[in-house]
Amino acid sequence: MSDVVLETRGLVKHFGAVRAVDGVDLQLRRGETLGVVGESGCGKSTLAKLLVGLEKPTGGEIRVRGDDLSRLRGGGLRRARRNIQMVMQDPYTSLNSRMTVGDIIGEPYDIHRDAVPHTGRQRAVQELLDLVGLNPDHLNRYPHQFSGGQRQRIGIARALALRPEIIVCDEPVSALDVSIQAQVINLLEGLQRQLGLSYIFIAHDLSVVRHISDRVAVMYLGKIVETGNHMAIYDQPTHPYTQALLSAVPVPDPRLRGRRDHIMLTGDVPSPASPPSGCRFRTRCWKAQPGCAEHEPTLEIRERSPHPSACHYAEVRDVMRRF
Amino acid sequence: MTAPLLDVRDLHVEFRTREGVARAVNGVDLRLHPGETLAVLGESGCGKSVTAQAIMGILDTPPAHVTGGQVLYQGVDLLRLPENERRKVRANRIAMIFQDALSALNPVYTVGFQLAELFRVHRGTSRGDAKRRAVELLDMVHIPDAKRRVKDYPHQFSGGMRQRVMIAMALALDPEVLIADEPTTALDVTVQAQIMRLLAELQRERNMGLMLITHDMGVVADVADRIAVMYAGKVVEEAPVYDIYARPAHAYTKALLESIPRLDHKGRALNVIRGLPPALTDVPRGCAFHPRCAYAREICRQETPPAYQIAPQRIASCHFVREVLGV
């Protein structure tokens, strides 16, 4: 399909015995937001690093506009990389405190010298500041002179410097206060409309992901267990893990107290160094049968799951319904 | 309503720093009743944690100084108690749990030792009995295989299990008040649900007063009876939980509720609260929220709004309460 801008096939990243990402297939289309949700240790941040080249895959492919990154070298690789940028989680540690904001945002131009002529650099940086809602005259200030929300805007401006088509956002609002979160979410949505960007939006907050995503992928222990458009995932989840995850999220409406479907999972997530055999979720799953330990379910459309779900017993359960 | 267990009146705390005096808590009134869950809700820097630490008497002085007010527990002002008396209250009557259980537990002792120590020091229990009580406590917070786990060190527990250990420790001496400062913020959502359920269960069994310090409006809606919303060192609105979500009376509460993404529907663009919370060294005159407020007018810049009693149990400090409520 021509409008697929980013695709992974069987993407794998192992750190020694730890299977952080263990066979991920995903597709990102032009102008859409793919939300990736999961709990700590599910591999979502490693996935982000793989996509932008901060980690080298152990196996599998990453294709940007059809080109397999592992086969590109030199200028070709640089051009592909330019197209996919990242916004980090922590606006405090992801900006060099000894560099001015102008230098931080303009640093990508040092590496990609053909992106902007040297004389036009200051103007380019000022335009970026303006684009993310900061004062263009502040380019000589240092990160500590900005608030957390403003720093995240600086991080977004840096990601936009090379005019990428794809931005990987790794927990971009989770370090921010509630009233500031909304500012940054609205900014990301506005920029997407204005510039036609495609987002991979990685987060643990399912409410934020629902708000911003067109499609959603749910990860558990290095694998995608369910994927579909946001309505399929939130209103008709078929994988038991997705159902448990959704039912655990508190909703800011006290009238729903005691009237929601609560699935209480027992125990903790197993170690990614020794994931359970067969289905990785079976050790915490109330539906697990002996066969689940032997046959690993593949992520596919099933008889009772209209969208891809990696469960032998996938079945719609509306955990959002009110009783 | 019964007499409050804990009655905080006009509490003031300031931090004297080189950059100036930060008024972190600026006249806070709170009451907590037996069996009740009071949520103290606010964003970073609103003074919610400092209020909790002042109640517990665990502020670092200097730089923090309690400059006014009372913390009444059973009619006794804790702020005036000598430190050795206060210490007894702290362990036996009012306990606290924190966001980060790993740094709240001692890494070089087993959790069993740390639990047993409470009984040995405060109750003079024998070594053997104290050990047995430690196992009972881990059982109480549903840690599987408690007999074996008492011999483990904090780092051998997962985040959720560690939070259970901290809850066990806080409840060891049967306190009447538990202050929980962001107890689930560092945890995954499925584990958060387990911990909140455990807290609710223990609270019910013991008819304990629970003061939940949090920024999470979802958690609050799930568990709180009453809410106190804090902004810039003050309680700006206080109300029963159903009322505040249905009809917020303070402009800040209303804006906050409209700015959060919802799990239960996709919704349109989020309402944005412009600007930033104020620096506590430089709180705006009048209503501290006025520079960010959609309702603000001249009076908001000049006069601090009084606490309007708008219904039984409902208080809001906003000049335009009626407008916010839409009446």
Automatic annotation (TrEMBL), chain A:
CDD domains per record: ABC_NikE_OppD_transporters
Gene3D superfamilies assigned: P-loop containing nucleotide triphosphate hydrolases
UniProt key word DNA-binding: no
One Pfam family here: ABC_tran
SMART domains: AAA (SM00382)
Listed GO MF terms: ATP binding
Keyword flag tRNA-binding: no
Ranges where the ABC transporter domain occurs: 6-246
Source superkingdom: Bacteria
InterPro entries: AAA+_ATPase, ABC_transp_ATP-bind, ABC_transporter-like_ATP-bd, ABC_transporter-like_CS, Oligopep_ABC_C, P-loop_NTPase
Similarity annotation: Belongs to the ABC transporter superfamily.
Protein name: ATP-binding cassette domain-containing protein
UniProt organism field: Paractinoplanes lichenicola
From TrEMBL, chain B:
Predominant subcellular localization, coarse grouping: membrane
Membrane topology of this protein: Peripheral membrane protein
One Pfam family of this chain: oligo_HPY
Entries under InterPro entries matching the protein: AAA+_ATPase, ABC_Ni/Peptide_Import, ABC_transporter-like_ATP-bd, ABC_transporter-like_CS, Oligopep_ABC_C, P-loop_NTPase
Localization of this protein: Cell membrane
UniProt-listed SMART domains: AAA
Domain ABC transporter: 8-257
Gene3D superfamilies associated with the record: P-loop containing nucleotide triphosphate hydrolases
Family named by the database record: Belongs to the ABC transporter superfamily.
Protein's UniProt name: ABC transporter ATP-binding protein
Organism: Paractinoplanes lichenicola
